[in-house]
């Protein structure tokens, strides 16, 4: 799982989330919840406590994992506790299927997510 998310690019910087230490191997937890079904929990750390792109980063993590995980899964994505001023609100947003679907219907937002999650050549 960490190999999948490590190459996601930051929406503002030319770096990957791994290079910026937004995601690390330690931020990924996988638990078996049924036969061939897993709960994947990601806890990412924004670069600053008031990062305006934290929701977008969470969305990129979700989209990339939904597309790339080769097994049935439930996905929970959170901001690491105490690392963002509005972490509770953002956690609700990025774990709400309807809000995620609505966000991906926005063409400009979808384009940004695609740029962040597309593998470099």
UniProtKB/TrEMBL annotation:
InterPro entries: FSCA_dom_sf, MIP18. One of its GO terms (biological process) is protein maturation. Gene3D superfamilies: 6.10.250.1280, Fe-S cluster assembly (FSCA). The keyword Hydrolase does not apply. Keywords: Chromosome partition. PANTHER family: CYTOSOLIC IRON-SULFUR ASSEMBLY COMPONENT 2A, CYTOSOLIC IRON-SULFUR ASSEMBLY COMPONENT 2B-RELATED. Belongs to the MIP18 family. Monomer and homodimer. Component of the CIA complex. Interacts with CIAO1. Interacts with IREB2. Interacts with APAF1. This is Cytosolic iron-sulfur assembly component 2A. It comes from Urocynchramus pylzowi. The gene is Fam96a.
């Amino acid at each position: 799982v960490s190999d999948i998310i490590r190459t996601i690019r930051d929406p503002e910087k030319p770096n990957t989330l791994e290079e910026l230490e937004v995601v690390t191997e330690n931020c990924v937890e996988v638990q078996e919840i049924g036969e061939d079904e897993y709960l994947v929990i990601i806890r990412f750390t924004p670069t600053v406590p008031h990062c305006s792109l934290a929701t977008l980063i969470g969305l990129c993590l979700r989209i990339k994992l939904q597309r790339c995980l080769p097994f049935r899964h439930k996905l929970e994505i959170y901001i690491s506790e105490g690392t963002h001023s509005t972490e509770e609100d953002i956690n609700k947003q990025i774990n709400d299927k309807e809000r995620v679907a609505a966000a991906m219907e926005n063409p400009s937002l979808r384009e940004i997510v695609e740029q962040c999650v597309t593998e470099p050549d």
